[in-house]
Here is the input.
Amino acid sequence: MADGTHPVDLDTCELEPIHIIGRIQSFGWLISFSSDWIINHISLNCEALFGKDPHAMIGVPATQFLSPSALHDVRSRMQVLGGGASVERIFEVDLVGDGRLFDLALHMSGRSCVLEIEPREPGKRRDFVSYVRPMIERLRAAPTLEQLCANAARHLRALTGFDRVMIYRFEGDGAGEVVAESLNGMVDSFRGLHFPASDIPAQARRLYTRNLLRIISDIDDPTVPIFPATGPSGDPLDLSMSGLRAVSPIHIEYLRNMGVKASMSVSIMRRGKLWGLMACHHYSPLTLSYSARTASELFGEFFAYLLEQKETDFALERRAASVRLHDEIMARVAAGGSLLEAFEDFGDAIHRVIPFDGVIGWVDGHFAARGSTPDQAQFVELARFLNTAGASTVWSTDTITRAFEPAEEWADKAAGLLALPVSRTPRDYIVLFRREQLREVNWAGNPEKNIELGPNGPRLTPRKSFDIWKEERRGQSRPWSEDEIQAAESLRVTLLEVVLRLADAVHAEREQASRQQDMLIAELNHRVRNILNLIRGLVTQSKEGASTIDEFADIVGSRIHALARAHDQVTQKDWSPSSLYELIRTEAAAYAGPHADDSADRVEITGLDALIAPGAFTTLALVFHELTTNSVKYGALSDVRGTVAVTLERDESGALEIDWREVDGPPVVPPTRRGFGSTIIERTIPHELGGSATVAFPATGLHARFVLPSEHIAAFDKPAAEPSGTKVLPAQEARFSAALHAGAAMVVEDNVIIAMEAEDVLRDLGFEDCRIAGTVADALAMVETGEISFAMLDVNLGKDTSEPVAHALRERGVPFIFASGYGERSMLAEVFAQVPVVTKPYGKRDVQVAMARLATE
Here is the structure.
């Protein structure tokens, strides 16, 4: 994954400079000329381009070979060309005036202007750069750095077509790790593998910081010499910024040992430093047009910006967490008391910002510990060491035994520590500990033996083995990050401030805490007594309507359950206003009696829904519980014919009017006495909520009306539809769906963004294997594998249509649907008139409906 040796660092070149500096890849041509347009260097394959012997062109004005329009374009771009690290691109240039179109790259190399020339990609024009913006928009939505990197690898592979695209991050020692990747499904995964620093030497990393994109189209393609090998001053032409520059044979052999035939790398820069690479591998030769490479480079720069933005956002979040920690600690202990008095809460607050496995507080000779830590005697010895190691600042290590040998005794409890001095003298500490994290590092080959001796020294022959080599690291904890250390330093300053204020505030804090405790106890006592009184009242009053112990238990239990259901309904919504519709439906479903299969459906609710405040909700729950149970026992719901109509209306004052009317049940006679249930129905709303209640007993059925004042109503709303049951697919459709998902789904779409969108839809619908084809040829090749069980075909593919693919699928009996941006079937053959079509833009529901149609055909 390295590009070999830096072209100007001759001291670090192990091979002849001509192989690295004086050659270019053969898919393009190169000329350089001085400020007066005299040709200084030229690649020896230029004879086919200019029709002249390259040797005879040296020292001749470039105006003799370039067309006037090409000269105009080149001069204009030279005017805006920046420093030596910038490259200008010019596309579709008639270079020699014969109608042939070329793509050009222009940059400065010392005093020379270097012009790199590549043939324009024949066939359909594709504006690859236009793909970058929607790709970046999708990257913005990534919630984590890991997902951002994974999405970036996926999008770059879709843009370029490489078999493997990796996000490769450099570590502090120069080694690297593959943190994300996207594969074509047929190559091995490198995700999680580490590569030693020698795989990408320092001089190569310096080159990556200047030239952001490097490509090798075919490792077996012979390179082309540049003539002459050196300029008039005797120096070779510096090709650091060249896109055609041939790479070191060391790197070619490295790729050959991996089985890679083509590669590309896009540098990921963060604040001027090389963070990592987008490394691309292909297992057959692959030539990308200059427009595709330009789009890839632009995508890499945008990704680097989003990466830095995301890391900055996380850093700001951690900084905000540190500020909150400061405020919380100040609020907790600055008014008085010792740091150790609230050590548990204090540790919880720190843990939210700086994760740890154990913490020790050592203040004024007092010891407090929590979690996995050394004991007091062991810590006293450690504290003496800390007095010399980090007495006035934060001190951290992830391997304490390296600096403090006695830590071997308690290495099983703690391997790393972060110490915060919290007083002016070096006696008091808050120390955070982390356990040993047994870490298994997977290397792509043994990092200690990755290069063999070659004929010219130990760095010439790249290692040939990339088998996974596992390294086990013991005695180390998870490292303390820079952000965590900065948060600890801020915490240290906070604690110093707290310590200085503690002495004057201890007494006031204790008094305040005592008053608050008394208030909390009094409030708790009040609430508990209210609950006990309510339950006592339910128990006492319920005995009047019960003739047996079992009946009494059933009545009391049902009323308590009604309160519990109402309580659950408001607590599930964070004690916010709850739906009266939902309350009535719940009560009807729970207490429909022996006719539970149909009685609940015979309670019809009409009118606006009302969101009832939590304080009134439990009261209404008891009222509707009594109404429902009374109806089930004696009223309209006691047989199979009766119904209950509940009407909810809002009056002019904003109050809620509730009308409960029972019809078609057994004849009703007024009760001769009032039981507890009747008392709840008639008196609870007026007494507790300041409303009104009227209950009548006509022979046709009970009729009750209630008015609930507006202060108990948060809002009126349209009622939500009643929840429906789960739909079960017919057996035919279920078998069809199973057959579809048994194989791979194919998306035929020439727009990579739309193709990826369709892939996401099909994965949501249950396909684990989704494959994308951008051309008819690619699609037919996939069909020939016999692995495709379903396909989604874009009707129009640029100059072609997907009709040949549809015929091939039909011959094999593979079901498929069409996607069309035309909104009509005019482009489809009559033979496909019955094939379902989804019209762009489509969604998951559209595709699902189209697939369901296939099951019936």
